Amino acid sequence: MYRTSATGYKSKITIYECDDCSSCKFKPKCTKAAGNRRMQVSKTFVKKRQISLENITSSKGILLRVNRSIQVEGAFGVLKNDYQFNRFLTHGKSSVKTEFILLCFAYNINKLHSKIQNERCRMHLHKIKSA
């Protein structure tokens, strides 16, 4: 069987259903359905999730996650403290997205300006890799 997501992505799913849940004492905690418990599983998703888990738990993945968390926390700290950004001024998904993109542009321009002023251009944090 195939399922189509809200974004239009089609995935092949397998449906598992219990034979008879009527006498199970865990049914109220397991499902609210009138019939039996049903589960839909995408085997492709399970495989991709396993690959992702292997990637992030490898030594390289751990190093990248540590560096990323440090970088992101610093950026949000600058936005909140230095720019005094406490809340979005607009409402709605697209308006907030636009406001956040403008905030990111401002952050990156200030960062670039600082690099130029301190003569730190063409200096890389990591070794450049090419394909």
Automatic annotation (TrEMBL):
InterPro entries xrefs: Tnp_DDE_dom (IPR025668)
Residue ranges constituting the Transposase DDE domain according to the UniProt record: 4-113
Entry superkingdom: Bacteria
Protein name (database record): Transposase DDE domain-containing protein
Provenance organism: Clostridium kluyveri (strain NBRC 12016)
